[in-house]
Design a protein that fits this description.
Length: about 260
């Protein structure tokens, strides 16, 4: 994939726990701030791709459910409703900054099919050439495996690999990877840099987020996919999207997974 000279290509993934309040409803203030930051980065000359979770949670709320559905059919329906709501909000907020958004829904199966993958690359290429900001999510209303496993982290890593991104940033509800569970151990320390993802790192990363379906384990898996392809990864707290500026300035924010050969 051809990159525009002087630009950085950045994939940003935002999780459900970052996008929503504890009530399950959308955190509009945080979403608006994230949109303003990503729009500003585009103005600075960067190419941005956003991988966004949250469709199921948003859809469940809009359908009046008090909790996330437990049936596959209920999850699929919630995803279908929620994806419309998500894109409506993204389109409305990004349009305030003159940013044209686009939607790409696909599954891991697409990346296993050479012809489909080639078409997907062409679409990303053309959208970025047109200065659009692609918003990516799994096609949860059709592909059940991704729906149940909730692995947008690895999807974002595969997108980064596909478009030969310069960096992958994973926004989550924690400050990064700790050497122990900070909810249970007050003395747990943040690991600011990981140069090699081995079995010890995978062991440390066990656990799951309450509102999302993934956890830190999927983030480490995603980091492994990206860093093996030469793409550095930062896992950071999405509470303050403006911290993305600090990441791009080279400051130590969250956990930095160095690219292979770095």
């Amino acid at each position: 994939m051809t990159k525009s000279e002087g630009k950085k290509r950045i994939v940003v993934k935002v999780g459900t726990s970052t996008l929503t309040h504890s009530t399950g409803k959308m955190n509009i203030a945080r979403l608006a701030k994230l949109v303003s930051v990503l729009s500003d980065l585009k103005n600075a000359g960067h190419e941005i791709v956003l991988v966004s979770s949250g469709a199921i949670a948003v859809g469940a709320v809009k359908l009046g459910f008090k909790e996330k559905p437990k049936t596959t059919q209920g999850l699929q329906a919630s995803a279908a409703v929620g994806q419309c709501e998500l894109m409506f909000l993204y389109d409305k907020l990004f349009s305030e900054y003159g940013v044209v958004v686009s939607q790409l829904l696909f599954s891991a199966d697409t990346l296993e099919n050479d012809e489909e993958k080639h078409h997907l690359i062409d679409t990303f290429n053309q959208l970025l050439e047109y200065d659009s900001l692609p918003i990516v999510n799994e096609n949860d209303s059709v592909y059940v495996e991704e729906l149940l496993n909730g692995d947008n982290d690895c999807l974002s890593a595969n997108v980064a690999r596909l478009i030969e991104a310069d960096m992958l940033i994973l926004l989550t509800d924690t400050d990064g990877l700790y050497d122990d569970n900070p909810a249970e151990n007050r003395n747990a320390k943040l690991i600011s840099r990981v140069d090699k993802i081995n079995d010890d790192i995978f062991a440390i990363a066990g656990g799951a987020s309450e509102k999302g379906t993934g956890g830190f384990l999927t983030k480490v898996k995603a980091a492994k996919i990206a860093t093996d392809c030469g793409i550095p990864v930062v896992v950071m707290n999405g509470e303050k999207p403006t911290s993305i500026y600090k990441v791009l300035d080279g400051q130590s924010i969250g956990t930095y997974f160095s690219a292979k050969g770095e």
